[in-house]
Write the structure tokens for this entry.
Amino acid sequence: MAELLSRMNVCEGMSPLPLFREFAAAFFAVSALALVHQPADAVAAPAASSTCCPADVSTPAPVAGVRHVVLIGVDGFGAYAWEKAKIPNLRFLAANGALTLNARTVLPTISAPNWGTHLMGAGPELHGWTSNGARSLEPLVRNERGLFPTVFSIVRAAHPKAKLAAFYDWGRIHNLLDTDVLSHEVYVGCLDGKITRFKRPREHPRAANAGDSPRGVKRTDQELVEEYEASSKEVTAAAAEYIEKEKPLLSFIYLGALDETGHKLGHDTPAYYTTLANVDAHVGRILEAIKKAGMEKETVIIVVSDHGGVGRGHGKNSKLETQIPWLIWGPGIKRGVTMNSAVLNTDTSPTIVRLLGLPQPQPWRGKPVEEAIAK
């Protein structure tokens, strides 16, 4: 451009028209190039795509040997309970993997905001789930299905034919999953007093979460806890069957019974530890399924929680509510390590995509828990 301006100044004997045309063509070419490099909000938004946002970093190499990831979510598992509980399967994973009892929730310390954070790599201020009710804040970024990017959507974009599955016994988990990209989904609830598997929470008009008494029916807190215990056992059975048969790349298994016990009979009570021992047995059943499927040397298991609790509740900012365990085991993971890193619920999905060698989307705010990964 500067060269053209100089030529127009010195070539006084020439007709200006050819130079003017050359100048105009160069001007519009540079203007178009500048427009392309403007910030996204300075031009019309592009059509949504399966990659709704740029990667935050370059694509990492996958962790050697990792071909499957199983994420186990234990609702209401406070870190304070670890030392007191009879949990041989979880202790086996910790002894042969990496553990912190100082992981921290996002606020508020309730379920949907924190499970959303585990699955979406960012906090409620970005993914929009600030309560257990309807989403109260529009997500800052959306994919073509109108959802904040989940770990399932990121894995699906990279592996179109992979098996991705979710199993849960609290209906609101459905809202936190990008269900259109799942290969298999199982919700375990109650239908007319019987524990029942459904494809989704509203598959039947009378389907309800375990532990929810039908209108006009009175049951004891112990009966409600036992019902939720049965639903978590059924979730485990459904997940184990699928793992053995289909060998999914990524599975999420949510177990809600411990939180129900905390609400009905109290956190840090004998009943709470009885339920936690049953949860540990469910973890053992998943381990058994992984072995039967021949996946043991290729599978990473991550065990996480959404919050702890005090008395019969949670939702405030005490250490008993905000401090939770975060455990990882499998190929490429350090053995017998107690981690010192600051770990948040935002870090779960970034760790999963790191294990699988996938780029992390820019809107995620968590980081892979690198201290757990063997170099």
